[in-house]
Amino acid sequence: MDNIEIVVQKITDIIIQRLQKEEVRKTVVFLGKEYSSIRTYYENRGYEIASVKDKFDTDIVIVTELTILNMNRIALGLPQTEDEVIIFQHLLNKKKVFFLEEGMELHASQHVAPRAMLQVLENYKNQLVKYGASILPLKHFEKINETINQEVKDITNKSDKKELLTITKVRKLNLHAGDIFETDRNMIVTALARDYLRDLGVEIV
C-alpha cells in the first residue's frame, strides 16, 4: 500500500509541474521609459515584460511618458500615433492601462499653465479615467514593492512541494467526530480521504 502511495505522489508531482509550465503568463509592455521598480512589481507578480514588437497584444500597458497632445487625442477618441492607437485599443477592449503620474506632461505643467487651460486639460485627463485607465504615482509601485519583496521571501522559504493526502495517511491521524482538519494550498486530499473524513464527522477547512 505504501508503494502505491509513493507512485501516486510522484505522478501527482509530475502532473502539477506540467500544468505549471503550461500556464500562460500575462504580459506587460512599457510605452516610454522603463522603470525598474515598476518592472520588479510585475515580475514579482508573475507577469512577463513584453518586447516593443509585441506591444499590440499585451494584457497591461504602462504609459510612463504622455504629452498633453497625446492625452488630448486619446481622450477625444482620435488616436494618431502608434502608441496612441495601442492605448486606445486597450481601453476599448477593457484591458488595463496605467499612466505614470510623473510621466504626464500635464503633471509638470500644473504650476505654469493658466488656470482656465488647466481646467480643460484636467477634463481630458479625467476622461481617460472614465475610459478605465488608472493614473498612479511612482511611489505607489515603490511602496508596494517592499510588501511584495517580503511576500516573495516568505513564499520562497516555504516548500512548494504538493503533498498527497490519502485515506491511509488520514487514518493514521487518529481523528474523531467533531475534529477540524485544516488543509493548505500545498495539500491535495484524495476523494476517498475526503469521504472518509466526512463519514467520520470531521470538518475539512
Model description:
The radius of gyration is 25 Å and the shape is elongated. It has a five-stranded parallel beta sheet with strand order 2-1-3-4-5, with helices on both faces. Strands 6-8 form a two-stranded parallel sheet. The model has no long low-confidence stretch (mean pLDDT 80). The chain has helices spanning 2-22, 36-44, 68-75, 82-92, 105-109, 115-130, 138-157, 167-172, 191-200, and strands at 27-31, 48-49, 60-63, 96-100, 134-136, 163-165, 180-181, 187-189, 203-204. It contains nine helices and nine strands. Helix 2 (36-44) links the parallel strand 1 (27-31) and strand 2 (48-49). The chain has 205 residues and is of the alpha/beta class. Helix 2 (36-44) packs parallel to helix 7 (138-157) and helix 3 crosses helix 4 (82-92). The longest helix has 21 residues, at 2-22. The two termini are 27 Å apart.
Task: Give me a quick take on this structure.
With 205 residues, the protein is an alpha/beta fold. Helix content is 52%, strand content 14%.
